[in-house]
Amino acid sequence: MMSLSGKNILLGITGGIAAYKCPDLVRHLKKAGAQVRVVLTESASHFVAPMTLQAVSGNAVSKELFDPTAELSMSHIELAKWADLVLIAPATANIIAKMANGIADDLLSTICLATPAKIVIAPAMNQQMYKAAATQQNLATLESRNTLVLGPDEGFQACGDIGPGRMVEPTTIVENINNYFLANSELAGTTITVTAGPTIEELDPVRYISNYSSGKMGFAIAKAAAEMGATVNLISGPVNLTTPNNVNRINVKSAKQMYDEALVLAEKSAIFISCAAVADYRAETIAKNKIKKTDDSNELVIKLVKNPDIVASIAGLKEHRPFVVGFAAETNDVKTYALKKLTTKNLDLICANDVSDHNIGFNSDQNALTLYWQNGEQTLPLSSKQQLAKQLLQAVITRYKASHDEKKN
Ligand code: PMT
């Protein structure tokens, strides 16, 4: 699974002939979904043009430590904080030596010192320089500080020598970065099933009962979970949204169909998040033909029967019960109703969604939630659904781990 979606990669390019491969490297990083910002050292700019890198990355290229225009928008500290990962490719003997010794005398070396992010380097230099005791010692120092060193490859060198010192190929670098994020992602190896959107309950071939759910909140949760390394199933009612990368989407229409799919997948999941706005009732019978207006009565009575409660059924599983998260969209007495659902549906956590404010909740791009669990609560203030989904998952992971620890003791 190749996905760097949502990841901010700062690519530092230093002065080696392999810098000519960097536009291709940026292209591969972007293709995998990453946001890329490039920092060039002075000598790197002799090997590759900033314009090219700006065009492929879609972002301005930074060069100067004291560039007043760059300082206004993104200083070295901001760049250092922005990055989820700093990649230096090609990494010359010089930058390796500076990093090993904590020297910060230009933008890139300063960022290396200032960043809390993982640093990955792809050394590239003459084979003799690579074998030099100083370089080997500097590399060992960096590895001991948790820097990931990729390569170098062996072979013909631009200077005519043969030996170790060629930069590893861009595709290999991207693969290694992807593996790093996968191995370190909080939800690696965890399967999460999310329900999203409305259900529709047919009345006749042309009419149905439904609600205003757009699916945006549930899709945002699925996307964030996949970016955190989870294996994600997304059971979706009819919505007009694109499936997030690396998400297994199952389309359903009715609550009954959602129930059937959810029960199968929930048993295979560690976490089940029920964000869908499921219709509580469906027509007892779906008319075979279009229901006709009659002249003799002002009323039409359609008998509704209860749909199965999906999230309560999953929370009631005796075996393979996942950690169960529900939502409660309410217009009044939000806390009271949410707490009632937490208990009656036997949930591990509930997300109270006050939908009396029409700017949040159904079909909006932003939302705000209050999470409740037994003896605890947490407010997630107004933000984009994407941002909120990440915060929600962090809270879910914390509660999920705590519930495991409680079961062990
Ligand atoms: O899709 P969006 O436009 O982005 O809007 C997001 C949302 C407002 C739909 C979402 O944030 C939300 O609040 N979802 C829950 C909607 C709701 O009305 O829930 P409820 O109070 O009817 O149900 C409580 C819980 O039981 C929910 O987790 C629901 O998924 C679940 N349920 C309900 C009925 C049923 N038959 N089966 C269920 O599993």
Write the layout of secondary structure elements.
Blueprint: E1 8-13, H1 22-31, E2 35-40, H2 50-57, H3 68-73, H4 76-82, E3 85-91, H5 93-100, H6 107-114, E4 118-123, H7 127-131, H8 133-144, E5 148-149, E6 153-156, E7 162-166, H9 170-184, E8 191-196, E9 201-204, E10 207-209, H10 216-227, E11 231-236, E12 247-251, H11 255-266, E13 271-274, E14 281-283, E15 304-306, H12 310-315, E16 323-330, H13 334-344, E17 349-354, E18 366-373, E19 376-384, H14 385-408
Parallel strand pairs: 1-2, 1-3, 3-4, 4-5, 8-11, 8-13, 11-12, 13-16, 16-17
Antiparallel strand pairs: 6-7, 9-10, 14-15, 17-18, 18-19
Helix pairs in contact: 1-2, 1-9, 4-6, 5-8, 10-14
Bound molecules: ligand PMT.
Features:
409 residues; alpha/beta; Rossmann fold; eight-stranded mixed sheet; EC 6.3.2.5; phosphopantothenoylcysteine decarboxylase activity
How would you characterize the overall build of this protein?
The chain is 35% helix and 25% strand. With 409 residues, the chain is α/β, with parallel strands linked by helices. It has two domains: 176 residues, Rossmann fold, CATH 3.40.50.1950; 218 residues, Rossmann fold. The strands form five sheets. The protein has an eight-stranded mixed β-sheet, sandwiched between helices. Ligand PMT binds next to helix 10, helix 12 and strand 16. Keywords: Decarboxylase, Flavoprotein, FMN, Ligase, Lyase, Magnesium, Metal-binding, Multifunctional enzyme.
